[in-house]
Every structure is written in C-alpha cells, then in structure tokens.
Amino acid sequence: MSIPASTTPSSSQQVPNPWQAHAVSIRSIQQEIDGVSTYDLAFDNAAADGTYRFSPGQFNMLYLPGAGEIAISVSDDPARSASSCRHTVRTAGNVTRTLGKLQPGDTLGLRGPFGTAWPMADCIGRDVIIVAGGIGLAPLRPAIYTLLRERRCYGRLNLLLGARSPGTLLYRSEFAQWEERGLVVQTTVDQSTPDWTGNVGVVTLLLERLRSFDPTNSVLLCCGPEVMMKFTAVTAQHRGIPPERIWISMERNMQCAVGLCGHCQWGPEFVCKDGPVFRYDRIARWIDVERL
Amino acid sequence: MPNENAAVSKRLPDSDGNPQQSHFVATEAFASIFEVLQGKGYTVIGPTIDQHAIVYDQVRSLQDLPQGWTDRQGAGEYRLERRDDNALFGYVVGPHSWKHFLFPPAMTVATADKTASGWTFQTPEDDPPKYAFLGVRACELAAMRVQDRVFMAGPYVDPAYHQRRSGALIIAVNCSQAAPTCFCTSMGTGPQCTSGFDLALTELTDGFVIAAATRDGEEILSELKSRPATVEELRQAAAVTQRAAEQVERRLDTTNIRDVLFANLDHPRWDDVAQRCLSCANCTMVCPTCFCSSVQEVSDLSGQHVERQRQWDSCFNFDFSYMNGGVIRDTTRSRYRQWLTHKLASWIDQFGSSGCVGCGRCIAWCPVGIDLTEEVAAIREPTS
Amino acid sequence: MVSVAETRYLLEQLQFSANFPDQVLHRLAQTAKMVEMHAGTVIFREGSLNETLYLIHTGRIALEMNVPGRGAVRILTLGPGEMLAWSALVGEGRMTATAIAIAESQLIALPAPHMRELCEADHEFGYHVMREMAAALARRLVATRLQLLDLFADSAPGTNHAQ
Q1: In chain C, N or C terminus with fewer CB closer than 10 Å?
Q2: Residue A222: inside a domain, yes or no?
Q3: Domain that holds residue A48
Q4: Is the backbone of residue C47 left (phi > 0), alpha (psi -120 to 50) or beta?
C-alpha cells in the first residue's frame, strides 16, 4: 500500500527471519584457561549442516533457552569444517554460566554469522601485525589460521599478545605450531609470576619494540579491552602505520545482532552490523568519548 | 516525492504523488467508511478516548472517535477539553503512535521446545490483522517513513514490522490546528500530508475533502457517497492546513545539527538537563520513531517451552548498555545525550534522515517538561 | 673494541637516538661504550648508586622491585631500543629498581656524569638528549598507567568478547 518502493523488499524474495536459531549440539568442550573454554558446536539441522560459512572476525549469537542469548565471536578456522564451529567463551554472566553447565551432546541455539570481518584481502602482500589482549585473541584466531594457511600471500607475520598473567595466555599450546608455520609470537603479561621468564608490561610496549615490519606496508589487526585497543592504535600510528590500515574489533551489548534492537549503538555505529570489526580512522573520533 | 508514495504497482496511472481529483464526502456519508473497510477485511484503528487521552485503538463507528473533543498540550502537559463544534479530528497527537500496531510493544519472536533429542527452535507464524489506520497525521506519515528505513531497509528486515506495514491501509488527515508542542514545520514533515497514504482527508464543518493516492484508496472512496469537491471546498481545505501551519510556533533549528551536536558531546547543558531528567523513558515510549527493544525469556513452569518475547526497551533504562558486568551509559547525562544525539544526529548517519518528526510528544509527555527544542537551542549557545 | 663509527651506526638504529642530529649522534657515540651482559647478570640493584645510563641494543632486561613478603616482583621487561637506568641521568643516581639481564644482552653504556657535563656545556646536545629522555619516560608512564588499570580483570566493562 503505502510503503516506499525503495525500502520494500521485493515480494518474490524470501525474507529470512533473523530470529530463527539453528539447533547445535556440543561436540566437545576444551578448557583453555581458567574460566575460558572452547565449545565445538555441531549443526543438528541437516539443512544448516555443511552450509555454514563465516569470515574471520564475525560472531554468532548462542542461545540458551530460558537464560538468554550472547554474542560470541567464532574462534575457528573458516576452512576447517562447515558442519561444526568452535567458539571460545569466558564464563562471566548468567548465559555463559548456563552454558558452562552443559555437557557434550547437549543442545543449544545458534544464530549467525553476523557482523563485519577482518580485512583479509587487504593483508595480501603486506606485513601483518596482530595485537591481542586477553580473550581478544579468540576473534583473531580465524584470521591467524587464514594467514598461516595462505602463508605465501603475506609478508612478515607478528602476533603480539598481552594477558593479565602467564596463566591467562590463551591458546598457548598452539604457539609453537604457529611459529613453525611463520608467525612470530611475542607475549607479555601485566603481572609476572616467579616462574615466568617472558616479557612483563603492556602489549603496546611490544609494538614499540617491534622491528620486523614495514610500517608503510603493514596491516594491524587488534582486539582486546577498549583502552588497550586505543593505545595500540596510538602506538601503531606513532610507529608509522596509517590509521586506515589499523583495524579493531569492538564490543557492545549485542542483542538482536541485526541492527534492529538498538542496544549496541556506539555513536552512529551499530556494533553488531557495522562492526564488530572497524577501520580505525572511521571510528577514531568515538573512541575517546566517555560513556558513549 | 514519487518514491515515497505507494508501491509502484499500486499507484494510480496518472498519479505522481499528486492527489487525485478531490471529492467531498458529507459527515453522515463518511460514517459508512467503517463498514466499507470492515467489508474489505480491515481492522480499523483510529483515535478514541481512553483514560482522559486520545489514543489509537480499534474503532468500529464514528461514535468511537473523539467527536467534539480537543487536546490542550504544553511541556509536561496534556488535557482533553470540549470543543465548541463537532469536529471528528479537532486535536493533534496523543501518547500513542502507529508504531503500537506496526511494531507491537510485546510479541513473541521465537520459541524453543525441549524434545527427546534436545532443543528445537521455531519462529511462530505471525498472523496480524490487516490494519486500516484512520486519522494518520503528516508527522506520523513521516514517522512511518523513518521506521520503514529502520526495519525494512536492510540488510536485515524485521518480519513483524514488514508484515504489518505491507498490509496496512493509510487514511491520513490534515491537521486543522497545531499544539504549542508541535514543530513539524521545522522538521519539514507537516502539517500537510503530501505522500505515504492511500487516502487523505481534510475536515470541513460539514464533511471532508478526500483525495485518493492509490488504487486501494480510490476503491474505498468510490464506495462512499461523494461528489467532486467544489472550488470553494478546496479553498476551505487549503485554509484549514494553512491555519494549522500558522499556529505552529515552536522551532527547532536543524541547520548543521548533526555536526553541532557531535561537536558538543561535552557541553555543560548535558549536565544541566541531567539534573532535570528522571530517566523515566516516557519520551522514548511516546516517540513515534524510537525502535529499541529487548528480548525476555519466558519459560513455562516445566522449562520445556520457552518463548522469546520482544518488548519495547529504552536507552534511558539503566541496564540498556550493560556489558560484561558493567553499564556503559551509567549516568542520566550519558543516557539523555545518547537519546538526543541519536534522534537528531547519528540517525542521519544510520538512516539518512533525522529521527525526529516534530510531533512534540516527548515534550508533552515528559513529566518534568523537558523540551528538546530548548535543549538543542542551549547547546547551540557558545559555552562561556 | 667497537669503533665510534660502529657505535654511531648502532645508535642510529635505536628508537631513543634515531632522530638525533649528526652532531649529537657523534658526541654520543664518542661517549658510548658497548657492554655485554650474560643472562642472569644483575646490572644494578634497587637502592644502589649507578652512574651509567644504558640503551639496549639486543637482549632483554627485567626490572624488579622488592616487596617485603612477596620478594622481588618483576614489574617490567625492556627490550631493544629502550633506555635503562634513567635515574642515573635525571635523578640522584639511586636506582628505583633492580635490573637483571634475562637474556644475552648487548647494551650501549653512557657514563651519566659525562653526559650531564655535555648537556650543561652544550644545551643543543642537552635538549635532544633530554627530549628523548622525557619521551621515553612518558611512554613508560602511559604503559604503567595501562598496567595499573588492570584491563584484563574479570568483569571489567570493555573486556572484549567475555560475556
């Protein structure tokens, strides 16, 4: 009737219902560090099984009936399998606590993938610096798998990882394999322990010291606490990396995941659909605004 | 203008958004519109009085309309008063807007059921009534256009809104008066209804000048007892809208408003308004474009069946911006700033237009009478 | 023995001295001496007097502070390009932390009294040295503040992907 033609989806095109969840079952649970586990979720529905695709940096909504939904970034290799998909989750609230009580074989709901991805195409032919803080490494792991699978497409690869303490370094058991395949891994902790012989101090210091990259031909991918990302971007620019090749992954209260519920707004951005991965120069003006 | 009119296939062949030849329908003849609409399967929603306010609800006859009533509005003020005539549409807008019907305040968007093999997930069949909205004002047509972009312009489409909106018939009415809270002329949204309707009415003393803009509108008009409007009736109709336009006194200066607000996120006025704002969320509930919602988990007693119930939410609610054990906008200052800058500034980035249509509801229904036009004016003042 | 030219070249590669004008670099190179520290070597101790400012060429140095009941707490590790023992130049020479080489390290040693004399005698030289010193301390201050914020603490708002 009176709907502007420009905003109306054509009637022939089936409009997918963004609220429809896929049933997934837990294939395995692997504890990573204290309070953080990786859930491999297999698609139960034959229609979804084998067709699920995501890009590095995207997230899914995991749904625990009765408890609610949470946005969890996919931490898997996008090329690994289309029938299951790993998610690294930190137990923090009601929904993740409910998830923590589940066992392999139990079912839950999944909607996704949602959001923007890391600029993998933009990394081709360039040095890539990955800066991660804490569990912020989880959404970067798909990017790491991609870089290593297509190793020859990229220049020098560096991972700078900061964590609170040695015991909270995520995916530590994979580092040797990553190094072997051509990713230089450097770690640092805020709080040292007597048995720790590695770096102490914030991750931006590792970026200050980094020598093996060409700032004019590098891409930097960063995920971690907002303040850490902000100072990483400042340091990266100080080191000569242009802001349009610095990318960060933001987090806000993602609920509907499709830009309809309003919760994840950050300035003019809907973090769920305009992000979570943002090009730094496009959002730099918002990152300093308190309580935005 | 044309692209804001009816879907192409339904537009009248010679209509480019210009009203078709206008007809005159006497008030007694207009009464039959309810039967006509009901006969076509419509549920008619229109203005009616409930709890001392003019709200939108199902109306079945002319008697359900607030005939002879008007509203007196101001900042934090809304009162019904008797008119000295029998006008059917002699008031402006009340606490309701059409979003109540296009974007229901509460609805189930998904369900989960526990079976022997685990949880299964469905989205329930949604079978809303076919609505005919009677008495839609120009600012409300603008609000629908705004929400159309929010819910249907993608990349994701809200199925509930889409379904209700596509089926709805819009019968607009040109305002014959303005309230002190109105500022549609500043927002370029009224008081004249120019597009986005099937039928548009202008109320005269003894009937209506009616123009159809779509085939559906034309068809309905043809079933009413009417005759072509006279030149004098057309003149009177124009005068009605003109009078309403002249009564609009409130102004919102929209010049460069996006940049002005974004450049003033630290303006002391935010602290000032935060002293007055109760963070009650009334403004967002009455706003015809506010679209935020949350989903609640509603389980049956056995826990085997869960409904995901979507409800209106508001950026003024404390935990709206909850994240990881903390709340981002944990002060009234930051929440009011979010609401105002979203409505008037970031909305432009997000949806290509202002989120404000100048209806003035947020001014009238604010318990402490906060007036966004005043707040914007104060923010425009250079800080000392 | 490392030549002045070589030392100068090494200085040019370090963040601290990369932007010094020729004249300043040359003077610095003349003053500097390369030293090697084996892993485990204590370079100076907290509270002791030390009259050498170091620039790290290779290796890794840990800074530790003594906390009764907790022992030596490692607060920071330094790497190539960074400055060590700032109190030798801008303080009284009393060290605020213990420095230990935790890897084979090559350091450029600069005698602090002589550096001070040079700074006094040639304010142009002094300006460049002190400006870099301030910049290095500012970076370390910001890093310390970030450490102080304990950003990875549980349930801190802004901790990414930790619902």
Answers
A1: N
A2: yes
A3: 22-114
A4: left
Task: List C-alpha distances in Å: C138 to B187, C132, C133, C145.
Answer: 50, 10, 8, 11
Kindly report the pTM of this predicted structure: 0.92
Q: Taking a C-beta distance cutoff of 8 angstroms, is the pair A54, B287 a contact?
A: no
**Chains in contact with B via at least 3 Cβ–Cβ pairs below 8 Å:** A, C
pLDDT in tens, chain C (163 residues): 688 999 999 999 888 898 899 999 999 999 999 999 999 999 999 999 999 999 999 999 999 999 998 889 999 999 999 999 999 999 888 999 999 999 999 999 999 999 999 999 999 999 999 999 999 999 999 999 999 998 887 644 333 443 4
* Chain B nearest C-alpha distance from A152 (Å): 35
| Backbone CA torsion sign across A60, A66, A68, A72 | negative
Kindly determine whether residue C159 and residue B328, on different chains, have CB atoms separated by under 8 Å: no
Q: Are residues A125 and A192 in the same domain?
A: yes
Tens-place pLDDT, residues B234-264 = 999 999 999 999 999 999 999 999 999 999 9
Provide the domain count of chain A: 2
Last-in-domain residue among A58, A85, A114: A114
Q: How far is B46 from chain A (nearest CA, A)?
A: 17
Is A1 close to B7, i.e. CB distance below 8 A?
yes
Q: Which of A73, A206, A208 sits opposite C161 (nearest CB)?
A: A73
- Between the alpha carbon of residue B264 and those of residues A292, B258, B374, the distances in Å are 13, 10, 15
Interface of C with B (CB under 8 A): 154-159, 162-163
Q: Is B327 within 8 Å of C157 when comparing Cβ atoms?
A: yes
Size (chain C), residues = 163
Cross-chain residue pair A261–B294, CB shorter than 8 Å: yes
Are residues A138 and C161, on separate chains, in Cβ contact within 8 Å? yes
For the record, the structure tokens of A281 come out as 């120069």
Same domain (yes/no): A87, A132: no
